[in-house]
Structures are given as C-alpha cells and as structure tokens.
Amino acid sequence: MISTASRVGTGNIVGVSTAICLGGPGAAFWMWLMCVIGGASAFVESTLAQVYKQRYPDGDSYGGPAYYIEKALKAPVLAVVFCVCLIATYAFGFNLLCSYNLQSTFAAYSFYNPKVTPVIIGIIMAVVVGYCILGGGRRVVHVAEVIVPVMGIFYVAVAVIVIFANARNIPGVFAAIFADAFDFKAIFGGIAGSCLVFGIKRGLYSNEAGVGSAPNAAATADVPHPVKQGLVQTISVYIDTLILCTATALMCLCSGTPRGEEVSGAPYVQNAISTVFGTVGPIFITVAMLLFAFTTLLGNLYYVDNALAYLNGKKTPSEAFMRIFRIICAVVVFLGAIISMDAAWALADITMGLMCLINLPCCAALSGITVKALRDYERQKAEGKNPQFRAADIGLADEDVDFWK
To answer: What pLDDT shows up at residue 176?
Structure first.
C-alpha cells in the first residue's frame, strides 16, 4: 500500500499534463517506453530488496537499496550517500513539488489569489500532514487509504468518458503522439525541452521505477519468495503508467483543449475534463489531487524514516529528533505551496536524478542475482510447487543474507 500510495499520486495527473504541455503529445509515447524499462528495473530493485532484507526481533522485515548496496556490493559509504539523496528527494524535493501541484489546482477558481491562496493552502496542508506524522490523525490516514483506490478507479472512469465523448479525435491523437515522438529533427534541435526528455522525466516521476524508493516498502512484504514481490512491483508500474498516465494523456489530447506553458499542470487537466463535465470537472480534479497528494506526502515520509534509521545505525532515531525532523517536513509542505513551478520541478528532477545515478548502476551490477532468483522461482513453478526461497539455491551463503538464513 505504501509503495502504491507513492507511485499513484499527483504525477499521474500533473506530471503527464506538464510533459504534454511543455514537451508535446509525443511525451506520452516516451512515457510508455519508460514503463517497459521501468517495469524491469522495478522488478530487479524490489527482488534485490527482498533477497537482502533484514529481520526485526519480532519476525517482521525491513530493507531497501541501502541494504543491498552495503551487503552485496560491500559499499557502505555509497549506501550512506544513497540514503542522504533519498532524504533530499522525498522529504524535500518531491514533497515541495507535491504541495505545489496541489495548490495549483485551485487556480481554476474565481476566489484564487496568487499571493494569498497558496499561503492559506500551504498552511492547511502543513498542519494536517504535521498532525498525522506526529502521531495523530490515524483515522484520517486510514480513511484516505480506503478512499484513494476508489478515487483512482473513478478518475480512470471519468477519463474514459471524456475520451469516448471525443471518440472522433482518437485516431488523430494517436497519429499526433507517434508523429511527435519520432520527429527527431525537433527532438535533437532542442533536446532539453523535447517530448523525449519530458516523457522520460515525467514518466520516471510518476512511476518512480528504478529510483530506489519502492524497494524500501517492498522489503517489508511477507512473501515466500523474493520474485513474488518483484512481480507485484512490476505490475504496479504498469498500472501507474499504462492505465492512469495513459488515461490522463488521452483525456487531455482527445478533448481538444489548447495546451501550452500557461496551462501546464493541473489547469490543462481541469480544462480537458470541463469540456464534458462543465464546472463539476475542475472540482473533481481538485478532490482527486487532495487525496492523492495527502497519501503521497505520507508515503514519501515513510521512505525517509527508513533512510534515517539506516543512517542511525539501523535503528530509529530518538523521539526528540524525529519530532523536530517531522516539524521540518511539515514546514517543507508549506514552502512547496508558495514556490514557483520551475523551482519545484527543478528540485525534484535533480534529487530524483541523484538517486537514479546511484541505484540503477547498482541494480545492473547485481542483476545476476535477480536472474538466478527468477530462474529458481520459474523452476519451482514448473514443478507445480508454491516457490519457497532458500539463499543457498542461488549460490548465496548464510553470511550474505539475514532474513533468509
């Protein structure tokens, strides 16, 4: 649920809209391609997180990239650097951006004042998030966890209605997507602002595959074989991109509403949905963004807690430290509502890129272990068994692992 909350969020709405408005319709194609690559990287990183996860005294498990970097690659310094980058990304970069994206949905309403409204929304969000992460609001969190999957289904249903209401535009939309995606003269003429770059960046922001965040949650799953969790995480990437991101892209493009830098983000999606649902459309997007943003913010901070524990000798820091840190995180949520769009996206892109530069080469270096685990899983399935994992079956000694001894 945690990894899903973080994957399925504001990026499915605002990330896709920004990519299309700034990069062109071809960005949708490059998001789809990133989904295929991302599904593979999600499988590798999550399987590795399971193989090298640690055991709590009560039998539960924990882990993530820092643990397989330290244990398998014997690179504890690099593991520390990765944790620092994760904290910078999820406590600051992504939460700043998530807060900005949420407040931007209110720009569609007549009461919106660019100098006052973001401040008010930022204060409200900071107070609610702070209340929940400081130990209160457990019922609020539980309700949100129940509502968000339902909202995701409703969002796809609404998008499908808009798409079929403009069914005559579907062939032209796909033609535009592929024509723009393979317009290499335009791509290489201004690669930084091309559909290829925006498709890759926003696709990565949306599904987070290969970034190294989801493995922190994947390591906690109780499964008999690491590959099972790797496959689950792969499916979640496909759901995120092929269903939710595609729904946003086709809804916006089929609606025929004008796109451009001035409407990039939530306004473009709100304009698209209002072509069918009128004034109710923008309200629906605002409600969806409120729920997605809330669970994304909390899910992001779960990853941060895991990184802090690793940096503190693999144990949770003191209660006083965590209280101060969480207050800082709540302040970050407030600041995100009042910074500019360019600053929000730039910070998120930089910090996310640093995580990828560490995690992906590590996954490539350890891919042989993942392949062995997959073959072991397939062999047992072929024999009609419910696959059970033993480290020795893939050539790992007891001292190489912790949970699977």
So the answer is: 92
CATH number at residue 83: 1.20.1740.10
Q: Please check whether residue 150 lies inside any domain of the structure.
A: yes
- Tell me, letter by letter, the H, E, C secondary structure of the chain: CHHHHHHCCHHHCHHHHHHHHHHCCCHHHHHHHHHHHHHHHHHHHHHHHHHCCEECCCCCEECCHHHHHHHCCCCHHHHHHHHHHHHHHHHHHHHHHHHHHHHHHHHHCCCCCCCCHHHHHHHHHHHHHHHHHCCCCHHHHHHHHHHHHHHHHHHHHHHHHHHHHCHHHHHHHHHHHHHHHCCHHHHHHCHHHCHHHHHHHHHHHHHCCCCCCHHHHHCCCCCCCHHHHHHHHHHHHHHHHHHHHHHHHHHHHHHCCCCCHHHCCHHHHHHHHHHHHCCHHHHHHHHHHHHHHHHHHHHHHHHHHHHHHHHCCCCCCCHHHHHHHHHHHHHHHHHHHHCCHHHHHHHHHHHHHHHHHHHHHHHHHCHHHHHHHHHHHHHHHHCCCCCCCCHHHHCCCHHHCCCCC
**pLDDT 10s digits, 238-251:** 887 888 889 999 99
**Model confidence at 4: pLDDT above 70:** no
**7-34: pLDDT as tens digits:** 566 778 888 888 888 888 888 898 888 8
Please check whether residue 299 lies inside any domain of the structure: yes
In a domain, 405, yes or no: no
Domain that holds residue 139: 2-400
What are the tens digits of pLDDT across the range 266-314?
899 999 999 999 999 999 999 888 888 888 888 788 889 889 999 998 8
Span 197-204, average pLDDT: 65
